[in-house]
Write a structure and sequence with these properties.
Macro_dom, globular, Macro_dom-like, 6-stranded mixed β-sheet, Leucine Aminopeptidase, subunit E, domain 1, about 170 residues, 6 strands, single chain, binds adenosine-5'-diphosphate, alpha/beta
């Protein structure tokens, strides 16, 4: 599997699946979640509501992932995953690892080959970018998956630089 890094907006990626850093309500939020729902349109929210009424009545727990349509995005599916909120007092990194591992499992179940990821938990949820990048890249690198490209779409030059440095270190 190839890991690629791009600086840009995840909602513009022509891929099989876009991973969303959702919150557990699945009913939309700010950041990347807001951008995906805005650009993808109401079909995504309708499927999220149906998931809340059925399989995830209590919300989607942190570390898990579930797919919906991608609506009007140039992708086939959105894979919603809920990152952990960063906490200094408690190590929640297993939950962030799980977000990437579970998203790839969902991608495999859909036979998605090219998957775009944001830096889950590294926005409003407060995870330090370098640690978020280390967990993201190491987990995807180690995963047994049929995904052929994991594309990290970083919002801004600083996030892109951090991911590039961490990837270079993993490769080195
Ligand atoms: P979380 O609540 O999991 O922290 P956020 O959406 O707040 O999720 O942030 C996750 C990362 O996604 C942050 O680095 C943020 O800058 C980035 N981000 C926000 N909008 C977009 C977008 N349209 N495309 C790609 N990344 C985005």
């Amino acid at each position: 599997m190839e890991i690629t890094l791009v600086q840009g907006d995840i909602t513009e990626q022509r891929v099989d699946a876009v991973v969303n850093a959702a919150n557990s309500s699945l009913l939309g939020g700010g950041g990347v979640d807001g951008a995906i729902h805005r650009r993808g349109g109401p079909e995504i929210l309708a499927e999220c509501r149906a998931l809340r009424a059925d399989r995830y009545a209590g919300g989607l727990p942190a570390g898990q992932a579930v797919a919906t349509t991608a609506g009007r995005l140039p992708a086939r599916w959105v894979i919603h995953t809920v990152g952990p909120v960063y906490a200094k007092s408690e190590d929640r990194s297993h939950l962030l690892t799980s977000c990437y591992a579970e998203s790839l499992k969902v991608a495999d179940s859909l036979a998605a080959r090219v998957v775009a990821f944001p830096a889950v938990s590294a926005g409003v949820y407060g995870w330090p970018m370098d640690d978020a990048a280390r967990i993201a890249l190491a987990t995807v690198r180690a995963a047994g998956t049929r995904v052929t490209e994991a594309r990290f779409v970083l919002f801004g030059a600083e996030a892109y630089r951090v991911f590039s440095d961490v990837l270079a270190r993993l490769d080195g």
